[in-house]
Design brief:
71% helix; elongated
Length: 62
């Protein structure tokens, strides 16, 4: 369980969806055609890694 919680803490930057998305916004303050793929990937990673269902699965995994 400790390993799974550590995975969450490492994967979900900032420890919450809102904090993770704020870090994406700070990293890419202006969205352009050039950096759009990176912005999109950052937001997708936040949505995936900070999802409460994912956290629940990590905690209950044995």
């Amino acid at each position: 369980m400790e390993k799974n919680l550590l995975t969450f803490l490492i994967s979900c930057n900032g420890g919450s969806l809102q904090a993770c998305q704020s870090q994406c916004a700070a990293a890419y303050p202006v969205v352009t055609g050039e950096n759009f793929p990176a912005v999109s990937a950052c937001q997708t990673n936040c949505s995936t890694n900070c999802n409460l269902s994912t956290v629940y699965l990590l905690i209950t995994a044995k």
